[in-house]
Write a sequence for this structure.
């Protein structure tokens, strides 16, 4: 695997290729990220991963400074997964001046759910993803469905800006006990880690009730929030939405159950397609 950190070196490394298949990440990689690399590998003529912890998508009280940076281990894992080229820019490379131009995703997509609790998050994500897709000359890009809303916002951005990139969503990789893999799982204490699958379990209970025909979605959401609170979580939201556009859930549509909740000081998110 070749590693490049500058834009000229990236352009030079990409020169022989016509169809880069790109996996953008913030590093601290786990099996979920490596799945994305393995999915991307046959979809292009070169598989490119990026590692960049993007300041723009962190709120002032969020974990930008403490976000785990594990570059050497990440490189070894990417290499073993078959990645061909890693672009790992510094902040000075990707943001040589303060980023004045920013993508402003539409409020109905980006100010709800995660966006309600993390103002500016999706603008930061879209801005860096737009830049990374441009720099890597991506023709395919793979993102995890664990960040379902992020995947949807990126799909809409790519569509509305007519970017020549095919966006692929990859299923969430889970630990044997159901916990969705996430870099932030590393913040959990041993006791919290043992408790963490409760988030997935709450979504499963909700999904089972919907599959069984229950249609009082508000009551189901409230029950799931109450269950999590009883178990010691501080939920931001548990929500049933339409899969297609994250609009209000309606019977007869393909639905998605999403949740975000804090366990101690760690905020986890998860979702289930119903
Ligand atoms: O999902 C992530 O790791 C990040 O939000 C992304 C897409 C790499 C943008 O920084």
């Amino acid at each position: 695997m070749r590693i490049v950190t500058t834009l000229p070196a990236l352009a030079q490394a990409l020169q022989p290729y016509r169809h880069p298949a790109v996996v953008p990440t913030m590093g601290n990689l786990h099996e979920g990220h490596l799945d994305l690399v393995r999915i991307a590998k046959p979809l292009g003529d070169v598989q490119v991963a990026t590692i960049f912890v993007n300041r723009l998508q962190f709120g002032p009280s969020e974990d930008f400074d403490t976000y785990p940076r594990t570059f050497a281990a990440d490189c070894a894992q990417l290499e073993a997964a078959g990645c061909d080229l890693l672009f790992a820019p510094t902040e000075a490379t990707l943001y040589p001046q303060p980023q004045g131009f920013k993508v402003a995703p539409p409020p109905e997509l980006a100010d709800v759910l995660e966006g309600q609790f993390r103002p500016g998050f999706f603008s930061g994500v879209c801005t860096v993803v737009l830049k990374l897709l441009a720099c890597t000359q991506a023709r395919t890009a793979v993102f995890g469905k664990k960040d379902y809303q992020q995947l949807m916002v990126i799909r809409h951005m790519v569509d509305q800006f007519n970017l020549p990139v095919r966006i692929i969503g990859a299923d969430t990789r889970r630990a044997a006990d159901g916990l969705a893999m996430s870099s932030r799982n590393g913040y959990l204490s041993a006791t919290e880690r043992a408790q963490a699958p409760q988030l997935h379990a709450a979504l499963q209970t909700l999904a089972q009730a919907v599959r069984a025909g229950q249609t009082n979605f508000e009551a189901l959401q409230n029950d799931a929030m109450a269950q999590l609170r009883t178990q010691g979580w501080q939920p931001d939201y548990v929500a049933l939405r339409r899969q297609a556009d994250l609009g209000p859930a309606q019977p007869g549509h393909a639905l998605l159950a999403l949740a975000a909740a804090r366990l101690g000081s760690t905020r986890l998110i998860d979702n289930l397609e119903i």
Observations:
- The chain is about 40% helix and 20% strand.
- The pocket of pantoate is lined by residues 24-26, 54, 57, 125, 128-129, 147, 150 (CB under 6 Å).
- Residues 139 and 165 are 4 Å apart (CA to CA).
- The first strand starts at residue 2 and ends at 4.
